[in-house]
């Protein structure tokens, strides 16, 4: 099929090649899964915390209980969810669990999670700069445009971590 396509100047791609060219999410997922999620860091080594997520009950503003699966469904449907709690209560581990849940069905739903640590975004002016910095920080420079386009088309589910660790920048 490829040779026939080449003869008439049509490039024929397999599904893996198409997905990688359309949005290299599988590569992103592999790279992203190896780096820490927010403050979920092993204090003894300084590396990514590899402990399994402990399912906790989250309480909504209305007082109803939610779990990470419910949070995954909410953010996938476009709802804004803000996790609040003291440092060390598991917000980053919950975000990692939500990310993994969404990543496992990303190609089926065409909703691709992107987990961003806001502590690395000082001085950035808008969401596009944040996405670009995040993708570049992961060493995926060639994929920046694909992820920006995916965001612009409503295909990214942003999981933003580190609001509670941001400081105030003073202007001179």
How would you portray this structure in words?
This protein has about 170 residues and is mostly helical. It has one domain (about 20-165). It contains eight helices and four strands; from the N terminus they run αααββαααβααβ. A hairpin with a 5-residue loop joins strand 1 (about 60) and strand 2 (about 65). The termini are far apart.
What key attributes describe this structure?
172 residues, mainly alpha, two-stranded parallel sheet, 8 helices, 9% strand
Question: What is the total domain count?
Answer: 1
Shape: globular
Class by SSE composition: mainly alpha
What Rg, in angstroms, do the CA atoms define? 18 Å
Number of helices: 8
- How much of the sequence is in beta strands? 5-15%
How is the main sheet built?
A: 2 strands, antiparallel
DSSP strand tally: 4
Order of helices and strands: HHHEEHHHEHHE
- The largest sheet has its strands arranged as 1-2
Distance between the termini: 63 Å
């Amino acid at each position: 099929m490829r040779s026939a396509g080449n003869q008439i100047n049509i490039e024929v791609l397999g599904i893996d090649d198409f997905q990688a060219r359309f949005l290299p999410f599988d590569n992103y997922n592999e790279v992203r899964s190896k780096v820490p999620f927010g403050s979920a860091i092993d204090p003894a080594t300084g590396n990514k915390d590899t402990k399994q997520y402990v399912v906790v009950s989250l309480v909504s503003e209305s007082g109803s209980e939610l779990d990470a699966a419910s949070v995954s469904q909410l953010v996938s449907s476009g709802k804004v969810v803000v996790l609040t709690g003291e440092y060390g209560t598991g917000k980053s581990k919950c975000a990692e669990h939500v990310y993994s849940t969404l990543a496992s069905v990303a190609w089926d739903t065409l909703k691709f999670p992107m987990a961003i640590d806001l502590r690395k975004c000082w001085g950035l002016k808008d969401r596009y700069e944040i996405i670009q910095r995040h993708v570049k920080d992961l060493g995926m420079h060639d994929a920046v445009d694909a992820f920006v386009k995916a965001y612009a088309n409503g295909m990214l589910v942003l999981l933003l971590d580190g609001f509670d660790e941001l400081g105030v920048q003073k202007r001179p």
